[in-house]
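Cast an eye over this sequence plus tokens and explain the fold to me:
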Amino acid sequence: MFQFLALRFARALVTVLICVSAVFIALRMAGDPADIMLPIDTPPDVRAYYRELWGLGRPLIEQYWRYLASVARGDFGLSFGDDRPAFEAVREALPKTFLLGGSALMLALLIGMPLGVLAALRHNSAIDRLAMASAVFGYAIPIFFLGILLILLFALQLRILPSAGSETPFHLILPTVTLGLPLAGRLARFARTSTLEVLGKPFIRAARGRGVLPLGIILRHALPNASVPLLMFLGIEIGGILAGSAVVETIFAWPGVGRLLVDSVSTRDLAVVQAVILTITVIMVCSNLLVDMLHILIDPRLGGFARASGKPA
């Protein structure tokens, strides 16, 4: 188990290093960062001052090592907009994104899991077809279209929910539904597939032969065994939630990391863009590492397989 976790942790560090290097290369490939971040009419002496301040006159390899050292210290530079540390802006926006993402994930679990399990238990029935049609509709509809549709219906026509902002709990409803419904559709289809696979296993037939009640088979045998692939699915979907939050937060003026990224790109605030991208990378890497640890807790055979084969499970 220790070797398995050590390998996963090493891969997580390599992933973060690759992302840090990719951001560095992207900044240089886009042109001189000073030309990108400073207005076109910036006086030459001011431009020279900032080039010296950011160390852009040094050799490229030295810039890279200094860049790695500053990122390791959590120093992403100063925001061009208000001259404060870039990560401070990200830290202020993170709680809003966590709130929105957590609410959307809870909504998806409350809708998608029961829908997928019900479809699996009623395989090839009208309930199964109706559930899967609803799931396909849920994840196929574009997020931006769903968000605009909800605003038109509940904010402009019915006037029962706010369309923008984050001042009250009611402001959270429309963004949560917009981000959570597509995830619920994907989760329902995945839960159906996982549950059907488990229901076909020999130990399920043995439990039925012993006279175990259907509810006991579902709760004690089917769902625990179907949870391993579902955990992997949810770990991957963390990235989808963070990616979707950029669209949803922009539509509903929700002050999270996604909206901060969009605003920073439009204002050419590369220091904040860098901080947002690397923060999202770390969150995704940590979430997948946590999922791997939960996999071992649920099924310790994964760690043993990794040791025996020399490959990750």
Observations:
- The chain has two domains: 2-72, 95-255.
